[in-house]
Amino acid sequence: MNNNELITRDTVPEAARSVAEKAGTPEGREMFLRADKDAILPLCRALHDDPALKYNFLSDITAVDLYKQEPRFEIVYRMYSIPDGRRLWIKTAVPTGEEVETVTSVWKNADWLEREVYDMFGARFTNHPDLRRILMPANWIGHPLRKDHPLGNEEVQFTINKDDIVPQTAFLNEHFEGMDFAEYVERGDEINTFYGAANMRKYEQEGRIVLNMGPQHPSTHGVLRVILALEGETIIDADQDIGYIHTGIEKTAESLIYQQALTLTDRMDYVAPLMNNFAYVLPIEKLLGVEIPPRGQFLRVMLNELSRIGSHLIWLGTHALELGAVSIFLYGFRDREILLDIFELLSGQRMMTSWINVGGLRDDIPEGFTDLVRYFLDVFPSRLDDYHALLTKNPIWLERTKGIGYLSREDALNYGVSGPILRATGLAWDVRKVWPYSAYEEFEFDIPTGENSDVYDRYLVRMEEIRQSLRIVEQALSKLPEGNYRIEDYKIVLPPRQRLDVSMEALIHHFLVPTHGFFVPAGDAYVSTESPRGEMGFYIVSDGGTKPYRMRMRSPSFSTLQSLPLMSKGHLVADVVAILGSVDMIMGEVDR
Amino acid sequence: MIAELVIFIILGTVAVATGVAVILSKNPVHAVLFLVINFFSVAMFYLVLSAQFVAFLQILVYAGAIMVLFLFVVMLLNLTGAIESVQDKLPAQKWVGLALGIALLLEAGVVTAAGVFRQVPAAPPPSPNFGTSAPVGVKLFFDYLLPFEVTSVLLLIAIVGSIVLARRRTY
Amino acid sequence: MPEILVFLLIKLILVIVIFALWMTMVPLLIWLERKVIADIQVRLGPNRVGPFGLLQPIADAIKLIMKEDITPALVDKWVYGLAPAMLMVPAFLAIAVIPIGGVVTIGERSFALQIMGLYRGPGLFVPELDAGILLVLALSSLGVYGVVLSGWSSANKYSLLGGMRSSAQMLSYELPLGVALVGPLLLAGTLRLNGVVEAQADYGIWFIVPQLVAFAIFLMSGTAEINRSPFDLPEAEQELIGGYHTEYSSFRFAMFFMAEYVNMVTISAVAATFFLGGYRLFFNDIVWLQPVWFVLKLMAFLYLFIWVRGTLPRVRYDQLMKLGWKVFLPVALGNLLVTGLVIAFSPANTILVMSIVGALLGIATFFGLSYAIVYGLRRRRPESERRVVEPTRAGVSE
Questions:
Q1: β-bridge pairing C119-121 and C109-113
Q2: Which chain B residues are Cβ-neighbours of C129 within 8 angstroms?
Q3: pTM value?
Q4: Of the CATH numbers 1.10.730.10, 1.10.10.60, 1.20.120.1200, 3.90.45.10, which one belongs to the domain with range B1-82?
């Protein structure tokens, strides 16, 4: 089905059909549409509801600020049809001050995505149920990802000058019905309970306990704040507040050259940084149109899978720790230590490796690297068996995880949940298989799936994924091709050191590539990758320069986290901890 | 005998003082705590009377189990704020209670003054076994078997009744 | 010197010695716990202060005492200050009835190595406290006040949840704990702890064999009663961030900490007394050596507690209550019934019959319970939620 067929279907409403501008070329099963903003909602509804189209998974909504052009904002919707593996992009132009109809009624996860677009760009969505800031503080002024938002030079807020900086009155007027500042300070405790979660206030008025779990709580994996309304210990409603470690990486990247922005990606999903590097360089390489040599691709896959194991070990450790099995936590860290040693041997860094670069790797693997990986492959499988022995049939573990946090497949798709949680619903959806990137099609591995879609099945799926990753690493190691580990275009990658002595051109490149960077052809690209937490990808918009015009990360945990209230309703407080463990979100990646 | 009297006076003071405190405490949790101390002094009375088995049971059952449940209920209902707003539905009961209390005190005074207790012959010294578990058990399971069993049936009825009352009707 | 003064002097010495024993057990236990857990978790554990880190508990104690004692603004100050003491005092009082050795005779006087134990001297005879085990149970039931009140008075929702959990938990587990002890008491025919130990020596068999079921129930209920892992729900640091003692610091926190360990030692002492023959070996040995056997048996239980903590995840609150009321209590009552029947119908060789029956019953209960826990008790999702999702691999090639 191409675009023509797609929008002339009966189910697509007349309005959407006539205004939609067909653009782009169907590439494989990927399609591209440009639609008028008024047609977005009927078009999306038709795309979602039509059984032949069935775009049941909203991957991302984001925007690009085309500053000094009008219409100013370009909003990008990206949706998939799962499990058919069809992809569709819709772009729509929104002039300053105009609104788009919300698509929250079509896909649930549009809620947070649209809130983020509003927060970052100020583009409003009509009929959105709860359009308020999500990542920035409620009293923030302006929308940071607009190109005209001041960059730097903001006065730092201290106790002595906070009244001058934050216009408290405006803030209080907007959020606390004109309360004066003294009262705000006095009632701080009560207000903090409901800050950013005024919708939970009704439960307190009903006499229920409203419990703030986080932002400082040992089981929220960082600074997530979950607000729980309890009856006894049973959860009757939940809400979340995120953005506590929002560091504006997407904004910062716009003023750095591509190689520099790479180092920022390490800080997003800090548990598996190499995966972020990988996901980041893929769309850039797509725009550049370069082909990585096989050795580079195999090494990338190997490092990727080692990171996945490392990430899953952290998940296993913390998940077990939260359910009281403290020893597993330390076992997980013991094994991750070997992985960190591997990364350290490779790059000199344990976490912020920045080793996968545009054009290949930063350098070839050092001496002793394969031995260390072999060692890991030798010792780790038997240890994994030990963890199975300690947990998989442990009655307490079964009691704590079976039947907890149920999320039906329909809900999972509707909430944009991907990765192990989606696979635990029985759907073998893995980007590595569906849209193989790098050299994944050359590896043999299985996609583990669950049946009951509960915490226990997610546990089993991840445990099996560790095994499959080991298989991939094993294959990559034994089939590692000879040859160059990166491309030989020295306008993009640094020329080898020894050429500097003989070639003037090499010396110039050696100077220009790190300082000025390389030019990326104008255009935009997105490549999905499979991170330990689900579909991760970077959307790169280039204006032809050496810095990204817009960098956007589609983070899996951001979507998954939205389904937390749905998963935890009716369970106990202790189960929220188990569910959070099974979601395995990394707040660095959620808040970015 | 002097030692016993001193202990009695101390315990009596504590018992009465905590009893009054139970009624006067505004905070229900404090009231529960005073009641626990009261039960303790009562248990001590039993000990002074050589009834150690009963004393331990008093602590185990009343202080250890029943009062914890009381505390649980008080905490769950969170009465601290509500206590001020309770409407006195029977305003007269305060005065009736006062009158009855004075009458009781007078009666006790009159009876004591009339020397009724002085005519009771002194009890023989208790046997060394008195108050230990064995004689209590013998009394309970031989002499008073029927009342004991009736009591347990009564408690069973109470348990069943409370389950019936507490059970949710919807299922 | 009047006899009453000699009596008081001997008792004072006993109090000091036994209290000192307990007070050395606590830091030793803390050190042991940290070392053993570290070993289980492939770590080193404390190894800086003193040889093998032996002085670490003392360093910990100094640190805790030197810290600032913070009383949050909104707490109920009286109750808040009182609660740690209400937890610690009962924990220490229970020591009074635990016998650490048999009856010692010096000249014309003889006395038991037990604070509230027997004393016989010229012109003065003080029997052992009759209902010793009742005192232990009564005191353990009082410990709940410290937990509940600290949780309530802290003015913190997490603490309150911890306090509510613990009050329900400790109340529920007192029942199986007490009922489990009735079996051995029936066999011993006395409520005195010394009598229980001597009965085991007389029978020539430790009560762990005829009362295997009671032993298991006691051990697990005891773990719950003292809030040890895997039943450490009131504190549950990953859910309730410490639970009832979240707001406490400095010495008050140290009191909570100490009470937990004292309780652990006491429960182990009761278990050793009731099921492992207490201070006695199978033959008549030197009385002065008996405390050594006792401490060794005690240590075995302490090690078991630590081992369990290093291995198991934590159960959930409702599962814990279910386990207590629906499994432990009926099983303990069943064990009591069987014991009573054996005693009633075979008065001649009670202990032989009971040993065989008890061991078989223990094995049967073990498998029955394992089956029940793994397959029977798991919470079923309501029918409406239980949509079984068929695994599909549509659109994906393997």
A1: antiparallel
A2: 52
A3: 0.81
A4: 1.20.120.1200
